[in-house]
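User: Predict the complex.
Assistant: Input components as received:
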Amino acid sequence: MTFPSPLTGVVPPVCTPLTPDREVDVPSLLRLVDHLVEGGVHALFVLGSSSEAAYLRDRQRRLVVESVVAHVGRQLPVLAGAIDMTTPRVLDHVEAVTAAGADAVVVTAPFYTRTHPAEIARHFRLIAAASPVPVIAYDIPVAVHSKLPADLVLELAADGTLAGLKDSSGDLAGFREVVTGARGLPRFSVLTGSELVVDSALALGADGAVPGLANVDPHGYVRLDRLCRAGDRERARAEQERLCALFKLVGAGDPARMGGSSSALGAFKAALHLRGIIDCPATAEPQVPLSPEETERVGKFLAAAGLL
Amino acid sequence: MTFPSPLTGVVPPVCTPLTPDREVDVPSLLRLVDHLVEGGVHALFVLGSSSEAAYLRDRQRRLVVESVVAHVGRQLPVLAGAIDMTTPRVLDHVEAVTAAGADAVVVTAPFYTRTHPAEIARHFRLIAAASPVPVIAYDIPVAVHSKLPADLVLELAADGTLAGLKDSSGDLAGFREVVTGARGLPRFSVLTGSELVVDSALALGADGAVPGLANVDPHGYVRLDRLCRAGDRERARAEQERLCALFKLVGAGDPARMGGSSSALGAFKAALHLRGIIDCPATAEPQVPLSPEETERVGKFLAAAGLL
Amino acid sequence: MTFPSPLTGVVPPVCTPLTPDREVDVPSLLRLVDHLVEGGVHALFVLGSSSEAAYLRDRQRRLVVESVVAHVGRQLPVLAGAIDMTTPRVLDHVEAVTAAGADAVVVTAPFYTRTHPAEIARHFRLIAAASPVPVIAYDIPVAVHSKLPADLVLELAADGTLAGLKDSSGDLAGFREVVTGARGLPRFSVLTGSELVVDSALALGADGAVPGLANVDPHGYVRLDRLCRAGDRERARAEQERLCALFKLVGAGDPARMGGSSSALGAFKAALHLRGIIDCPATAEPQVPLSPEETERVGKFLAAAGLL
Amino acid sequence: MTFPSPLTGVVPPVCTPLTPDREVDVPSLLRLVDHLVEGGVHALFVLGSSSEAAYLRDRQRRLVVESVVAHVGRQLPVLAGAIDMTTPRVLDHVEAVTAAGADAVVVTAPFYTRTHPAEIARHFRLIAAASPVPVIAYDIPVAVHSKLPADLVLELAADGTLAGLKDSSGDLAGFREVVTGARGLPRFSVLTGSELVVDSALALGADGAVPGLANVDPHGYVRLDRLCRAGDRERARAEQERLCALFKLVGAGDPARMGGSSSALGAFKAALHLRGIIDCPATAEPQVPLSPEETERVGKFLAAAGLL
């Protein structure tokens, strides 16, 4: 389908349900997609960090895009991550996900290597030149260990290299600089990756949000988005605070036993499993699974948020 | 060929020559391999960081391993990097490089994701269980943003998960802890990834070295290795200092224009080109090429080291 | 004077004007204080990071507090930083600044040492036990290299150790966790240290702001505070955006020649000098002074903001 | 006494024994000094990181220098740390410690502030210009969060600003660059701050070592220094490995309960207490004390090293 310009609203980074032997569980994935569409989301982002893209083999990545596009590709735009270390490898993913039907690609700065802003600019330009679909920059310093400078993003927005920014940096001041600077570029979409300050981001002019927690509670984020657009700041704040309380489920896993990805992604999947949306809460290797007690903790957060 | 146990000596991480349009230049690659073999190196490590593995497409990675194994696989052990973000993706590379003939695989901790020592241990155990060849851990915090703890390495050495360690952490004290702790494990190989303290590493008991600069001057590192093994510490130190002076070529690129990978890998390739070993000094995208002046600077370092 | 509970509104971290030979320029300091009071600010924070507290000798620190308290101590609360590496040294500063008349002290986590949340809690508890005035925690990871965890702040707020938080971490989501968690603690004051998202911080429930830029434009921040409290979100956003544009003056210094403190503090002082408020724009050693061209750049930002 | 030029040998950073109420325990301090002198050390470094300088009040710092200088100032050179955030504050410490009799001062890069190499150079030049005694640079990135670049150190060595370097960076390759570069500067002293690679550092040309563990086992480090100078590399390595095994006592404290400073400094003091040299193992606030079990663990390391 035609990619909206700018893209606005709630764009969940779709979790990738797995079978117990760590293959993509397509029926669960499609049920999750239905759950999101029914919740009113405005687009889908597959193969992002919350999708465990970093853990999926190439054939699994392809299967995810093909399955989701075939299922809802006519209803909703489908963005796909093309997450890899450098330009040539990203280009191979761009080719694969667009062949599979993605309407846009989402690309980070290079990682693993020691990079430089000039190289990051070159990276995005080469990818945009080769991509048949719009390119959205993905600013995620916790993963790639560099921050996209606001002036670089705005330069690449102005010259048409980038169609948008998904900002998972946690730096609202830098995000605001892009939002404000992109006012003269009405087709450029500025999206926050935060779960916790979506109301703030929309209030200062963001186009939308890409919250991982929207997998668990799409209705909540869609409600929040509507309240913000309607200018009902008080009810927006209350809804945001309910979602902030729910988000604490990402800390369910014991940090002495596992890393942050295991805990957060494990909790999202445990919640989807407890809500009956996916068949199995398994996360990809080498992540450590939540224990029964940790899963129970997730359930308590769901209950407190009225989701069980 | 049978993988030596332990692996010792000089094991260059082989640069990957590219054509001007960034395809693997196989004739240049084989000339480089001949240059290294003629220099007396003890094994070859392809698809490491100095090989630009992070920049090579999967089909290019496969071509490198196949070409090198076909050319010298009967003479020398060929180690291959299986560099990717997480266990499932690394396993696909392990399958590919061993199908292409690699004698051992070299694997980092997970990256991009927020990981934990328990997950790193799980990662190496799953890979070792699936790999048909020995697994060598690659400790490179500058790239993966976590450090392999010495006690974890020793635990995985003791239970047979790991056949060796390539330590590019720059932390000689931590390296020593592994060297000392592995004395009771005679088949475990402890290799330094440093160019600059090979003499120190060998003096405290390391089995060998994997210096990127050995692409440029394999004879120097082989000489250094022999002097160390012969106990001729003074001449070893002099040789090491000559190589330290040469190593400054990695700073040839202007840090205002490019990142550290562009400068260092660009300088290695410029040196190989100036020495007439490879046809083209191009590095992979999005790296910034050295300017003529920067290349000239590389030439001066070569001349000063008696290599031009 | 009695310390307000909670403290609300605009609390500028007061710059410390210096003479050309780097002594405290008391007349300029008092003119700056008058400018701030005339601008309508609600309290003053001396000896913070923007005050160059890290650069001031103990006798200079004392002189600053005494001078400001004597000048306006009956009109406005005066908070004073007690910035040092560890508990015993901070306690000496607490004694000095309270003897000089400070109404509250502002204290960071320990730095230089390798610390731990348990030690940070112990630090604040020991200081609160000894301090005759309220203690406000200062969360500034860019300086002290650890982040105050929200749950720790809330624990210390609940048990009465802390009277408030000044958050200069840039992490609005973590800030929100404290704001929300402190709702049941009406005497605890939550202040943002940001210049750029004051409107967002107040909208989610913050009590006030401590923006360094309020030295240059106190009227702007006081206006912003009033618009936010009046619920006039659109005009608040416009005022905030004007201040964001002005804040870019902190980048006036060339990063190839100087560090971020030199540039930002130098620009604040250049602006105060250009506006005729202080006699000399000198910053403390070893900071690099702005060049005439860089100072001219500061002037352009002032002119664009209608402040010249 | 005249400061040796260059300073060579073993220079322990002297622990500061405290009474149970955290005052300097002068009798224990002098017993510790006697123990070090009797062990054969070549100079003493008071008010370093291992001395808990970051935790000592100014009057305590002064008392330490005065007491040690009065006790052994005619026998041995006494170096004193002047550890503080910026130039003006460091200058006050320089004045205090030299008035108290220090023969040299040891100074880090600025910290807390966002600094720059140009500012670091300015910092050392201003301090050297004002100091009546030689200035030694202290490279300790774990505390100050910047690394002294080798070329900057060499520049400041060549122009006479610095009389030496104490390198606690853990980066032996960078250390080597200074050692090699300073060969033409025979009066400049290059000292490693490592406990674990003293043999390596001396082998590549270092002048001496400043190991915290030498508080506990001065005889061991003096023996190691002698073996290295005698060229007896095998016995030097064995002695170094014995000291490496002993050094593991710094991990006695549970990292879930305390930070690295509490554990390491607590273990040094517990060892000195167990050996009967100091009266009380207390560390300064807010450090967490070792538990009886953790202290017992320290005792086992001492016993294994033949020190109990």
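DSSP finds twelve helices and eight strands in chain B.
Let me know if you want any component modeled separately.
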